[in-house]
Amino acid sequence: MTRFSNDPSKAWMDLPRYSEEYSGGVQRFLDFAYSDGDPQGEEIQCPCAKCCNIPWCRRGVVYNHLICYGFVKGYSRWINHGEWDFPMEVDDEVNLYDDIDGLLNDQFRDVTQAEGVYEGQNEDAKKFYKLVDEASQELYPGCKGFSKLSFTIRLYLLKYLHGWSNASFTSLLESLKEAMPELNIPLSYNKAKSMVKDLGLDYKKIDACPNDCMLFRNEHKGDENCHVCGASRYIEYPEVDSELQSSKRSHRVAAKTLRHFSLIPRLKRLFMCSKTADKLRWHDEERSKDGKLRHPADGQAWKDFDSLHPDFAKDSRNLRLGLASDGFNPFRTMSISHSTWPVVLMVYNFPPWMSMKQEYCMLSLLISGPRSPGNDIDIYLQPLIEELKVLWELGVDTYDASRNQTFQMRAALMWTINDFPAYAMLSGWSTKGKLACPCCNYGTNSCYLKHSRKMCYMDHRVFLPMDHPWRSNKRSFNGKTEFRPPPQLLKETDVFNMLQNVENVFGKKQKKSNVGTLLDISGKTKDHENARYDLKEMGIRKNLQPKDTKDGKKIKLAQACYFMTKGERSTFCGVLKNAKLPDGSASNISRCVQPAERKISNYKTHDAHFMLHYLLPIPIKSILPDHVAIPLIRLSSFFRRLCQKVITPEDLDCLEAEIRETVSQLERIFPPCFFLYNGSFGYPFAKRAKIKRSSPGPMDVSS
């Protein structure tokens, strides 16, 4: 259950840390935190200025840290230790089943309004606050268990859990009202639905073509067949005897459905809470402006956007949005073919500790189906794009509770956060093939491997300084010198000119870190027979090339410098199997390790990131030779430092210079097949490091 601190003032947190008042306050904090912190009461997140609520520590360690370093700045409400961010008045006599206050707090962030005060509010705000006032109405005189709103929501939930029809739900409401006239409930399904809809707990279903050609909306709302491919809008069932079904009205089921959660009402609702509205101006009024990168507002992209659009930047309440999307199987089994793609938006105006909180990540679209929408995802993005265009071009009237005034809120989509395959879907730029790098464009250094039958991306020496000795080194690389300059980034004017003749239409026209190579996992390794023949075709690394005997039979392939013996692979797996990880940092990686088979499988993308950042350097340092281990450790260090909470532009310059050399070192060690766009490290890392300067900063490095 949610708890509240018995130390509401917390003035002692600002006192000198050597004082008795501060020490006593720390003890009261620990008593409060450990009363409902870790299930075993052993560890909690350390809130000191050094740990910043990330590592989990025992009580003695937390006490020492708080005495030495003090609390992290601004942590006056102990939300990571069981205390609500915004306390609400709770009636002890209210039945715990009626948690409507908790619902309103989760949805609307402690919206409160003095009775009868509506000055400065627009019609939407008045409607919302009236709904909040009605939530306090009793279900019947003297009822302490339910309110009118909570009881209606409970019945509405039961309707969908048990499949009641709309007519049966209306009949139930009428029967309850007839039996108990004093009940304060809506009298029909439509009125109950309107109440829930006003709360913002509703979404819109939009039928889609089963082949992802179009949405049945706007002028095509009444169509029964796709106007592109002709496919039926509905699932076609076998015909049955009409006499047997004459008493039942046929119910047609859509072949594919998009669920759209309207974005604009939820963005407007953020400003209806005065405390949340204040935080939406944090990036302008409270952010530290010391030149370090802590927040997207510190990045060059944010500053360039402000200079290009001064009218937008003039009001700090205008929202900067990020969009993320990826596919997953909701059934938790690989035996069922299904791919659900949620499209989620987050608000970057918030401070870093709020912008990625679950309650502020807004689900906008839910695309479900037996397969990924692929490049046709633009079909499903249409409702969201229309909302974003309204928010950018016109804005919407929004009531700001913190200033008790209505203003014209605008919003801009600044970034997308996704992996490389999803990047291709959302941007329309192909991330595979000859020109896979979206940064280098026509300057992408790609090479087709004849025997592996794949494209690889090498020639990383073009990013090194022109006087670097490796540019003249033929033997260790591709057998050639490299004195070309790095590819030029595509200019915005060039992009604009290229798109001038492109028809802007939706849809179709009418007519992981690769430990598989290190562990030599079958089917996963990039060092296979064809990869060795590619070396022979390219005329490089003669010691690793396959050799044929006189009778035409192939001899055993030579061992590469990164080869591990069975014992070394067992040691490698043992380190990952026995690693003790902080709670919440990654999933249970030990379940993905099979020591007997000496392989790792079924780990998630975030787990791969965590292993690359922290775990990979530990075993390879003692197993692999230095000239192999050091580049891999440097690669881990690169990503770990890039993902820091605070980083300076000077540090980014150093990282950019280091990653150029690191990737070139990897090119000297691993076969060309290792450098695939979806393989281990890929081609555009040196470019990506440079682009990060204008990206959202350390918060967005996962993209």
Can you walk me through this structure?
- The chain is an alpha+beta fold.
- The chain has 4 domains: 11-81, no CATH class; 100-202, no CATH class; 261-427, no CATH class; 515-700, no CATH class.
- It has 25 helices and 14 strands.
- The protein has helices at 20-34, 59-69, 100-108, 123-134, 148-162, 166-179, 189-198, 264-270, 274-279, 282-285, 300-308, 310-313, 352-355, 377-380, 382-393, 420-427, 492-498, 515-519, 529-538, 566-578, 605-615, 617-623, 626-642, 649-669, 685-691, and strands at residues 43-45, 56-58, 204-208, 256-260, 319-325, 341-347, 361-367, 396-400, 405-409, 411-417, 446-449, 454-457, 593-594, 599-600.
- The strands form 5 sheets. A 6-stranded mixed sheet has the order 3-4-7-6-5-10. Strands 1-2 form a two-stranded antiparallel sheet. Strands 8-9 form a two-stranded antiparallel ribbon.
- A hairpin with a 4-residue loop joins strand 13 and strand 14 (599-600).
- It is globular, with a radius of gyration of 30 Å.
- The relative contact order is 0.07.
- The model is unreliable at 85-99, 105-118 and 678-703 (pLDDT under 50).
